[in-house]
Amino acid sequence: MMLRLLTALVALVLSAAASAETPDLATIARSHGTPDIPGLKIVWLAPWGDVRNAKPWRNIIVHQTEGPQGSARYGAEAQQKNPTRRGVTVWVETDGTVYWAVAENLVPTHGDGANRNDNKYIDNRSTYRQVVRDNSIGVEFAGNYPDVTAGPTEAQVAAWRVLVKLLRARYGIPPERVYAHNWIDFKDARYCEGCTLATMAREWGE
Q1: pTM of the model
Q2: Is 102 within 8 Å of 86 (Cβ atoms)?
Q3: 17-34 pLDDT, tens digit each
Q4: Which of 151, 198, 145 has the alpha carbon at shortest distance from 175?
Q5: Closest by alpha carbon to 45, among 82, 88, 89, 80?
């Protein structure tokens, strides 16, 4: 009995020590380099610098690409080689792997200038010509091919739950500033690009 109690106490102490040594997400979000993010498998093609030198990202725009499984990696690698090409900073594969492709002080070409003004999905008075590439960090979810109406995978949703909190904590972005690409731009009429993921992020809130 005494041995069992001693074993339990040692396990408790070790667990508490491990927890104390593991920084929380908010602390990690303010770090630099290529930190390990609990709950994320992340491939760093471009490491973080000092967050104070990053672009003043005020919004997050969620994109989806008609690439097949595996296309996030290739898209991210091409983006890393040519950061300002049409694309985004962060790519998410169907298995949930996250690729950080572009340094935070560079602006990829994404979005169409926030040209949506019909209030179809959200009130566009605060987004029209305002939620643009220069103030919005883009996240691309790959894999809706050949069915563009297919939703994100379970692995992508699980990764997004952590990733969106990380982005919001790093750049001080509130949940209401997470936008689906279709909410701010006129996109493919066959489906609502990014809408499910952006809605999730807002519902998860703080």
Answers
A1: 0.88
A2: no
A3: 333 346 899 999 999 999
A4: 198
A5: 80
